[in-house]
Amino acid sequence: MKMCFPCLQCFCSTSDDKVVVSKNDKGGESGKKFRLFSYHELKVACDGFSSKNKVGEGGCGAVYKGRLTDGTMVAIKVLSVELESMRGEREFISEIAALSDAQHENLVNLHGCCVEEATRCLVYDYMENNSLAYQFLGREQNRNSFDWTKRKNVLLGVAKALAYLHEEINPHIVHRDIKASNVLLDHNFNPKVADFGLARLFQEGTSHISTRVAGTLGYLSPEYAVSERLTRKSDVYSFGVL
Predict the structure, then answer these.
(1) Which residues are catalytic?
(2) How confident is the model over 148-161, as a mean pLDDT?
(3) How many domains does the chain have?
(4) Which residue numbers belong to the known binding site for ATP?
(5) CA distance 168 to 191
(6) Residue 1 lies in a domain
(7) Confidence class for position 59, pLDDT limits 50, 70, 90
(8) Which residue range forms the structural domain that includes residue 87?
(9) Do 79 and 188 belong together in one domain?
(10) Beta-strand runs (E) in 24-140
(11) Is the peptide bond preceding residue 191 cis, with omega within 30 degrees of 0?
């Protein structure tokens, strides 16, 4: 079964056939490099997707810690995709569409992807301190070491990321799943908003879109859950819960 990925048409090849450069909405190069990885390369990076390298798992797949041949530590998200039903394909395309041209210090950095038959992988920077959820729901000593200064910095970082997604980048992006497990923390506890599998793009001047309700119970805004009208305020509500 031959697959077509229109979202990858926004990239142009360089002299290295494994590296592409994303284009901005005006047709010019944005300067952000995006790499196409082979499945074998990623399998070697995380020791055959060994369970000892698994750092997380969700409804869309598992995440593994890996080391590329140049020594770069990465997080490899392996999505569960069924080619017949296309389950998981929408999430894969949404993440690439949202992050391929986005550059902000409080967004997780997407290095590239792997597309081989039914395999769909996304490669990100590895976050040494896992997620905000891990810090608060894990060991008690993690919670005790997470002082108010760190908490304030995390909240400010997430707020800056949302302001960038909602106002600065075009098309605008609504994340739809802001929650503690989707806020990753680097070695200095700087927050990085992650997991754009449910994200939706908003063209300039668009106030809302009608779409099926998706997200996490407890973080969903009531008006979105009832009306199925998605706005940027839905992310703001989730941020308030966070």
Answers:
(1) 177
(2) 94
(3) 2
(4) 55-63, 77
(5) 19
(6) no
(7) low
(8) 6-125
(9) no
(10) 29-36, 54-58, 61-67, 73-79, 110-116, 119-125
(11) no
Q: Note whether 102 and 173 are within 8 A (CB).
A: yes
pTM of the model: 0.81
- DSSP conformation letters of 26-37: TSSEEEEEEEE-
Q: Rounded distance, CA 174 to CA 242, Å?
A: 16
Rounded Cα distance between 236 and 163, Å, is: 10
Residue 10 has pLDDT above 60, yes or no: no
pLDDT at 77 over 60: yes
Which of the 8 DSSP states describes residue 218? T
For 182-198, write each residue's pLDDT tens digit.
Answer: 999 999 999 999 988 88
CA distances from 210 to 74, 213, 227 (A): 35, 9, 8
Q: Give, in order, the Cα–Cα distances in Å from 195 to each of 73, 154, 207, 227.
A: 18, 17, 23, 24
CATH number of the domain where residue 49 is located: 3.30.200.20
79: which strand partners?
A: 61, 120
Instruction: List all residues 6 or more positions away from 134 whose beta carbon is below 8 Å from its beta carbon.
Output: 142, 181
